[in-house]
Amino acid sequence: MKKSMGRTLFLFACVAPATILFFIFMIMPTANVFRMSLFERGAYSPTETFVGLANFQAAFSDPKFIRSCQNMILMIVVVTIITFGFAIVFASILTREKVKGKNLFRIIFYIPNILSVVVISGIFSAIYKPENGMLNSIIGLFNPEVLTNPILWKGEGLVIVSLIIAMVWQAIGYYMVMYMASISAVSESLYESAGLDGANRIQQFFLITIPLIWTNIRTTLTFFIISTINMAFLFVTALTSGGPNGASQVALGYMYNQKDAGLYGYSMAVGVIIFLFSFALSGIVNKVTEREPLEI
Amino acid sequence: MKKRILSLLLCATMVLTMFTACGGGNNADADAQGEGAKKITVAAFEGGYGADLWKEVAAAYTETTGVEVELIIDKELENVIGPSMQGGQYPDVVHLATGREAGLTEQFIKDNLITDITDVLSMTVPGEEAKVSDKIAGGFTETALTNPYGDGKTYLAPMFYSPCGLFYNAGLLEEKGWAVPTTWDEMWELGEKAKAEGIALFTYPTAGYYDAFFSALVYSVGGPELFNKVTNYEEGVWDTPEGQKVFEILDKLAGYTHSSTPAQANGEDFTQNQQLVLDNKAIFMTNGTWVVSEMAEAPRAEGFKWGMTALPAVEAGGDGYSFTWFEQAWIPSGAQNVEEAKQFVAFLYSDKACEIFAKHGAIQPVLGIADKLEGDNVMFYSIYDNGAKAAMGAFAAYKSVAGLGTVQEVFFDPVNSVVEGTMTTEQWVDGIKEATDVMRENIIK
Q1: Residue B29's pLDDT band (cuts 50, 70, 90)
Q2: A89, A92, B117, B314: least CB-packed within 10 angstroms?
Q3: B328: closest CA among B148, B198, B194?
Q4: How far is Cα A7 from Cα A3, in angstroms, rounded to an integer?
């Protein structure tokens, strides 16, 4: 009896610091976001007025917020599909095929992930520069008209595409390395026997590789969707500051700007909407991708 | 058993250290408050003039009055003092202008969180005989930037002023034999001539730089009357002939703007727009005197020479205007040492402080400052002596409304879309009309 009591105490003492910290720095602020979304106040004002759900009503009839949500969703969908497609294919090629300089490629793909977003935005500013920019100069080799009438990569029409390219470039390496690890764990004998049965490389990829690393794909997918919401904000802030004229603004950036405009409660309401959205989205993704796990 | 006790003890220490660490901050606060009277905290934005000027002025203040000054200087000052102010810890004096992206000063104005400093104007400058009001140049304490509520009371002290206008390469104009336009008609003529040579007439760093340009333009079209109507969001002002004239000019100018401008009009690439002028790819840009030091290291066309002109007049013989941009220093109403803070603000206009500021290129709005100017600044600050009128003022503060947007978003950001051609000037004006209907009703009195 005494022994188990001591054990409980010990366990309690071990878990307590983390729990307390988690409560203070995660649960309380989150609860506070929900509470503050029901009030109208400035970031520094000492008083606050209860306005019920008015902030949410305003958000859903605010065209700028809706546009920023559309941008966010577009980025989540497109960036996820492209990144995952490339990451899995590259990982499969680098693990399964005999490529010269495998490790070199691995490093090259991984490097963008180490760089900070600010550095990346500097690099892409040089790439997207209208005059003498890398991209326009290369295109100019084939189409000299671009040199006199440059393509505006950060202009209103193409800004989202440019952001997506930068985000994909940044994310591929990380996920590729993850998939390389799980692909190399797939037993070689499976591929050998599939080869004997007449399955070609592409069939092997879809029938062996994908099903066997499915659990990994599923986990990273949820993880990636959540992180894209954050990364989109970082990239937009560093690369375009939401411009031109709000064309590249994303929901988190909009939330941040509303705080600066003196609408703290409203920005919290936007925060709550994003919070619920990302929760729901990861729930849906989790449900949709559910498969019987394959164990061999 | 011993082992277990030991581990329990270790855990307990861990938990305890955690709480002591949390408590530590509070003790330090109490100390700071206790000795408050002999020490003030000054938070200053580190802009183009650097950080040294504040260190030197703080030292000079301590020397004059014996009061110690603790400085917080940062390029992203909002991020440094913002969170601590949310937690209830305020610096005694804040030097941070309006018009910054984070809009911290605007938020303090909107929430009435700034101390009334009207009495500072009648205070004697520490270490001198003169009163503050005798030193500050005329007009600076009568604008919406210093008296935001229009009640005759001053809340923000005017600091470092800079004439804004159109900056250009004087060398290029000389070489081509082009004259600096004095009316908008001459401007369009020059635009055509330049276009023929593949040079754009105009560019702007970011849409935010339109605030000074727009104000000066409104002044030059309709004088102070029109400016007051515009900045108080008066109904129907954009349907008057003057109001329409303003947007007629803006519309035409958008057509003459360098096509790359909107794609570079963001925090990351705005210097590339400024570079267009240095490379002779665009003639004029709207800017302030700080651009000279900002682009000091940048490569430039041969024979480049900075020039600056006021906005052209609407008709021959009309008034050209240059917007006087200035920064503000203010005392948050949560400050601990208000009296000492007021003394410090008064000291900012002393000869000693003005000299230190001027040495670093920051020009205080005091009488007789012209003698302290050096280099390019002599030319820039003489703009008003050469016939240009000074435009001053700001948009009236209004209570934020969800979904309404800021003045910057409503009035200036659309210029990017208009230049790119994804929006017409009519749509721009319609957006302004719609938004100002709401702003008007929420003006803070």
Answers
A1: very low
A2: A89
A3: B148
A4: 6
Scored b (16 or more CB within 10 A) or e, B129-154 reads eebbeebbbeebbebbbbbbbeeeeb
Residues of chain B neighbouring A63 (CB-CB closer than 8 A): 403
Query: Hey, which residues does B42 pair with through a beta bridge?
Result: B71, B93
pLDDT digits (tens, 9 = 90+) for A172-197: 999 999 999 999 988 889 999 999 99
The whole-number pLDDT of residue B96 equals 93
pLDDT tens per residue across span B206-258? 998 998 999 999 999 999 899 999 999 999 999 999 999 999 999 999 999 99
Residues A62/B402, Cβ–Cβ less than 8 Å = yes
- Closest CB to A243 among B111, B265, B281: B265
**B-chain residue closest to A58, CA distance:** B402
User: Is it true that B38-162+326-385 and B163-324+393-441 share their CATH fold?
Assistant: yes
For A23, the enclosing helix (H) or strand (E) is none
**How much is the average pLDDT of A86-94?**
93
Q: Tell me the residue type at B117.
A: I
- The DSSP secondary-structure symbol of B286 reads E
Topology (CATH level 3) of domain B163-324+393-441:
D-Maltodextrin-Binding Protein; domain 2 (3.40.190)
As a whole number, mean pLDDT of residues A162-169 equals 94
- pLDDT (average), residues A224-250: 91
Domain B38-162+326-385 has what CATH class? alpha beta
Spatial distance between the Cα atoms of A122 and B185, rounded to a whole number of angstroms:
40
pLDDT higher than 90, residue A296: no
**Quick one: pLDDT band at residue B26, thresholds 50, 70, 90?**
very low
Show residues of chain B in contact with A240, CB under 8 Å. 266, 268
Phi/psi at B180 (5° precision): -70, 125
Contact B184, B202 (CB under 8 A): no
Q: What is the mean pLDDT of residues B60-73?
A: 93
Domains in chain A, CATH or no CATH each: 37-102+180-288 (1.10.3720.10)
CB neighbours (10 Å) of residue A107? Answer: 11
Residue ranges of domains in chain B: 38-162+326-385, 163-324+393-441
Rounded CA gap, B440 and B396, in Å?
9
CA distance B214 to B286: 10
The answer to whether residues A249 and A236 touch, using CB atoms and an 8 Å cutoff, is yes
Helix (H) or strand (E) holding B73: strand B68-74
Cβ-defined contact of B263 to A244 (cutoff 8 Å): yes
Number of Cβ pairs < 8 A linking chain A and chain B: 144
**Do B148 and B117 contact (CB within 8 A), yes or no?**
no
Tell me what pLDDT residue B88 has.
87
Beta bridge partners of A110: none
Per-residue pLDDT tens digits for B87-112? 889 999 999 988 888 889 988 998 88
- Using CA atoms, how far residue B51 sits from B46, B48, B327, in Å, is 5, 9, 15
pLDDT of residue A1: 55
Task: Report whether B44 contacts B72 (CB < 8 A).
Answer: yes
Q: What angle do CA B116, B120, B125 make, to 5 degrees?
A: 160
What is residue B341's predicted lDDT score, i.e. its pLDDT? 93
Residues of chain B found within 8 Å of residue A21, distances taken between Cβ atoms: 18
Q: How far apart are the first and last CA of chain A?
A: 44
Collect all residues with Cβ–Cβ distance below 8 Å to B2 and sequence separation of at least 6: none
